[in-house]
Write a structure and sequence with these properties.
By secondary structure, this protein is an alpha/beta fold. It contains 11 helices and 13 strands. The chain folds into 2 domains: 251 residues, Alpha-Beta Barrel (TIM Barrel), CATH 3.20.20.70; 56 residues, Alpha-Beta Plaits (2-Layer Sandwich). Helix 3 packs parallel to helix 5 and helix 5 packs parallel to helix 6. Bound molecules: iron/sulfur cluster (2 copies). One iron/sulfur cluster binds next to helix 2.
């Protein structure tokens, strides 16, 4: 594997994150996903390739971008911007030069070396807080060569690595990444296969199979690998007693010895603006946050059934009642 030439479809990174694993973390978001969750908080990562987005409502029609594009890819006719994607090399110069922030480059191809150098700048935070780097997305395991190479570099510097996965990837992809992974954060969203299909666009069959396979790998592996389960709490979808307790039963039957923590992640609507910018409808646009009582109910349902009740935690914000 030649590290320097490996690239990924990369969205961005988020520093000082406290909700993506232990300690203070830098989370990297890779593009591309196998699911289409109705509540997705990172819709821009569903699109695999980087892309240029024109926000017509911000555009002042100055044509700076037309002049600044080195490849002559942009034209403007009748107030409408046209970007010739067949010749655009996604260099981002037009977005940099736009005085109105009406052009936005979402994602880019990034080299493993460039990203590792950026991540290593945060080493001191990781060491002092017991944190590290979390690979998220989208689905990071869709780019296994890149994840494995980058995690290997981080492990050589004793930096903790976490993989945040939806589980719907070939096992061979996970096999490449796991040797360099300290923590897997595995999503279990819905136990009912039909509902899973309805809300995420895919059945949960392979996700459950992969989780059971992962459990076998963990039991055989001498090197420590920690497993967290994460369940997004989505009103009228996942946040029901039936679903939460079905997940608890599945964990009891298969994984209680391996799961260190089960996180119930509160719905949030901070991504509302992202959907507007992408020109996408979002059915949760007007959905309020859950209140403390609703979140506590979910935690109680889980704790009533799950054999390790003290490891069930709710994360995220609750709605403050007036
Ligand atoms: S530079 Fe920005 S504001 Fe000016 S025409 Fe291009 S997109 Fe619109
Ligand atoms: S991203 Fe670069 S190549 Fe593409 S339109 Fe903008 S300036 Fe031109």
């Amino acid at each position: 594997m030649e590290h320097d030439t490996l690239t990924a479809n990369y969205l961005h990174l988020q520093r000082l994150s406290t909700e993506d694993g232990p300690g203070i973390r830098t989370t990297i978001f890779l593009k591309g996903c196998t699911l289409r969750c109705a509540w997705c908080h990172n819709p821009e990562s569903m699109i695999t390739k980087p892309h240029l987005q024109w926000l017509s409502h911000l555009c002042i029609g100055c044509k700076t971008c037309v002049l600044s594009c080195p490849g002559g890819c942009i034209s403007m006719e009748n107030g409408k911007l046209r970007i010739d994607s067949s010749i655009c090399v996604l260099c981002g110069k037009c977005a940099e030069d736009c005085p109105a922030n009406a052009l936005e480059l979402l994602g880019k191809q990034i080299h493993v070396k460039e990203l590792s150098e950026e991540l290593l700048k945060d080493s001191v935070f990781f060491t002092q807080s017991g944190g590290g780097v979390t690979f998220s997305g989208g689905e990071p395991a869709l780019q296994p060569d890149f994840c494995a190479a980058l995690m290997k570099i981080l492990k050589e510097q004793n930096i903790h690595t976490a993989l945040d996965t939806c589980g719907l990837v070939p096992q061979s992809n996970l096999e490449m990444i796991l040797p360099y992974t300290d923590l897997v954060m595995y999503d279990l969203k819905l136990m009912d296969a039909q509902q899973h299909q309805q809300f995420t666009g895919a059945s949960n069959e392979r996700i459950l199979e992969n989780l059971l396979w992962l459990a076998q790998v963990m039991r055989k592996r001498s090197q420590k690998l920690t497993l967290w389960i994460r369940t997004p709490l989505i009103p009228n979808a996942t946040a029901s007693k039936e679903n939460v307790q079905a997940i608890a039963n599945f964990l009891n039957q298969n994984l209680t010895d391996l799961v260190e923590r089960w996180e119930l992640c509160a719905f949030n609507n901070l991504c509302r603006d992202k959907y507007v910018r992408l020109g996408m409808d979002w059915e949760y646009r007007d959905q309020a946050l859950m209140n403390r009582e609703e979140l506590d109910d979910c935690q109680q349902w889980a704790r009533q059934v799950y054999h390790k009740p003290n490891t069930v935690n709710v994360t995220g914000a609750a709605r403050v009642e007036e």
